[in-house]
Amino acid sequence: MNEYGSLALVGSGEYLSQMMEFEGSLIKDGLANGKKPIYLQIPTAAAQESDHRINYWQQLGAEAAQNLGVTQSFLPIFTREDANNPELLKTISDAALIYLSGGDPHYLANTLRDTLAWDLILKNWQSGGSLSGCSAGAMVLSDQIPHFRLSRSEPTKGFGLLKDVRVIPHFDKFFKWIPDSAAKVLLDLQGDEVLIGIDEDTAVVKRIGQDWQVWGRGKLHIIKGEAPGQHQAGEFVKLGSQIL
């Protein structure tokens, strides 16, 4: 099947109980498109954290996969060498859901961009697998990734699936840890760029033949775009972005 799979942007909550139903729906989408019951988890964004934290994410992901009745494939892609190692990447093509979890979006983008791993991830999604990014994982799907704490620094090049959309995860907590001066720079986009904020434990998903749909306890905030405003679970919205 050559239809693109579902694409999800998540504000926070990967592998947690409050997001289990949502993750399960993405797996079902992938299975319906001929993929295998594999929940593939990519922790690259957390690569610079401690071994203890990496083990924590692996265990949390294992519990999520077990609760959903599928097989976990946790890929330790921590360097560009890892991302170009075909032996490490064998399970990518068949996975019903590929999940880019949180951490440092700049490290994630610089590690996976223009690698065999990203090529395989893209081909999986283009052939029906679901692709989800949480927090840092959502940010990298844009063309550009802003520096939240170094707002005047040049943005990092993202993966470009969302041509003109910029994503702010953890949006309901965003202004508590970003200085006002930095927030003003980040919120001042030019041209036709779309800026969205996604609250914690909240997601927005694009399924084949549908507009984007909001899921979760919080809201999707379209700060700049075709229909600015706040949108709650169940609502369909247009983000005005041509997906790769």
Automatic annotation (TrEMBL):
Keywords carried by this UniProt record: Hydrolase, Protease, Serine protease
GO biological process, one term: proteolysis
Matching InterPro entries: Class_I_gatase-like, Peptidase_S51
Any Pfam family: Peptidase_S51
An annotated Gene Ontology molecular function: serine-type peptidase activity
Family: Belongs to the peptidase S51 family.
The protein, known as: Cyanophycinase
Source organism (scientific name): Candidatus Nanopelagicus limnae
